[in-house]
Amino acid sequence: MSEDKNPSVLVGTAIIAGATVGAGMFSLPIITSGMWFTWSIIALVVSWYLLYQSGLMVVETNLNYPRGSSYDTFVKDTLGPKWNLFNGITFAFVLYVLTYAYISGGGSIVSHTLEASIGLNLPPVVAGLTFAFGLAFIVWLSTAMVGRINAIIVGGMSITFLLSMGEFTTRIQLPVLLDNKAEYIPFIFAALPYFLASYGYHAAIPSVMKYYGKKPDLIRKSVLYGSLFSMVVYALWLMVTQGNIGREEFKPIIASGGNIGDIVGALNNVAESANLSALVNAFANMAVVSSFLGVSLGLFDFIADKFKFSDDGMGRLKTAAITFIPPTIGGVFFPNGFLYAIGLVGLFGMVMATLMPALCVRASRKKFENKDFRAGSDKLINVILVYTAFLAICFIAAAAGLLPKFG
After folding, report:
1. What DSSP string describes 140-166?
2. Which structural domain, as residue segments, surrounds residue 391?
3. Is 382 inside a domain boundary?
4. How far, CA to CA in Å, does 360 sit from each of 95, 218, 340, 383?
5. Residue 399: which H helix or E strand, with range?
6. Collapsed DSSP state (helix, strand, coil) of residue 66
7. Which of 19, 171, 384, 390 could form a disulfide with 201 if both were Cys (CB 3.0 to 4.6 A apart)?
8. CA nearest neighbour of 67 among 1, 120, 127, 15
9. Residues near 172 by Cβ (< 8 Å), separated by ≥ 6?
10. What are the backbone angles phi and psi of residue 333, rounded to the nearest 5°?
């Protein structure tokens, strides 16, 4: 828990932004390469608004429970043990898969950076283990430590992103960027679930409440500012990547697995500058680190809540072991599953990010009288449920080969 008497909104914003901007960001240009830029921006804004509203529903529900409570507590109390079992399985699956994806992506970008900068070709196993255990130690220390380090990292991300994107912006080819033919529209539906995965901060909301306590205004601002920051970064990232790399040029990136190192390598080829390549590599490293910390913190607090581990050193060590060992094994021995993992999160993440928030807040309004905070109207709950069903249909249709898939 936080020891700050007057905690800053910057820490909560950094936790949310850190859980959002990261490895998922590097999948966006790839999975939107079929629909291309204009349709991607529209989908980005609509997805942000709906997922922000569902995030506020998590806030409203979680405020009815003691500090440190996570999904396991409030889903069980509002919807019952069967729903909680379903949620627990999908919640753990999503966060483990995301943590695995970030270890996979982190190992990839560490290897790429070391090879590009000093010519060291680090084995994937060593790169993955170094990335995973180094950051797991930070999560083990405390929630406040993750928030403070993420605040520094997000600041560094902002600087390197603006410097590198500013240079790439001057290289944007408008005919390439604004290549928006009507025939690209069908590719939108297969890509939509990935946008949900790119706004995967809902698991971190209980951690933000654990840090602040029952201060809804600070928590709401953290979710708002953190998610808005993420949306702006995503929009600029899409503009730069799809303005510099042609639509057809994404096909070999997809064919090679679509990992973080692949998209960074493609941008470095465009850069033709050692300094610009260094900025891109620095941003990629910080983005993956901040996302790993934010998402794994959400999994860490969920595990602690589920098994009622204490918050002392030994209790946190038990929690850390359950949290980090399984995805580290996956990330080390199956290092190229990044894009597939993000796709799975798009399906199962609906449970954590939209379905459970809507169902839980509806039930909690019948059970509690929370006058301090209310996340939208009852009609908005129905909108989120319809949105969940639509995303599920899109994912299943794409998996069944009923929707076109670029590349």
Report:
1. HH-HHHHHHHHHHHHHHHHHHHHHHHH
2. 12-399
3. yes
4. 19, 22, 29, 15
5. helix 378-399
6. coil
7. 19
8. 1
9. 239, 240, 243, 244
10. -95, -15
Tell me whether residue 6 is in a domain. Answer: no
Question: In terms of residues, how long is the chain?
Answer: 407
User: Which tokens in the block code for residue 376?
Assistant: 């939208």
- Determine how many CB atoms are found less than 10 A away from the CB of residue 152: 12
- Rounded CA-CA distance 21/124 in Å is 23
What tokens appear for 250 in the block? 């994404």
CA distances from 264 to 50, 100, 106, 260, 281 (A): 30, 20, 12, 6, 7
User: Which of 23, 383, 3 minimizes the C-alpha distance to 198?
Assistant: 23
Count Cα atoms within 13 angstroms, Cβ side, for 239.
19
The dihedral of CA 129, 134, 140, 143: what is its sign?
Answer: negative
4 lies in a domain?
Answer: no
Cα separation, 247 vs 269, in Å, equals 16
- The pLDDT tens digits for 397-407 are 988 889 888 86
Q: How big is the CA angle at 26 (ends 24 and 27), to the nearest 5 degrees?
A: 70
> What band does 128 get if pLDDT is binned at 50, 70 and 90?
confident
CA–CA distance, 362 with 365 (Å, rounded to integer): 5
Mean pLDDT over each residue of the chain, to the nearest integer = 84
Dist CA 235 CA 57 (whole Å): 25
**Number of domains present in the structure of the chain:** 1
The total of other beta-carbon atoms located within 10 Å of residue 175's CB is 8
- Per residue in 245-276, pLDDT tens? 888 888 888 777 666 667 777 777 776 677 77
Q: What is the CATH number of the domain that holds 362?
A: 1.20.1740.10
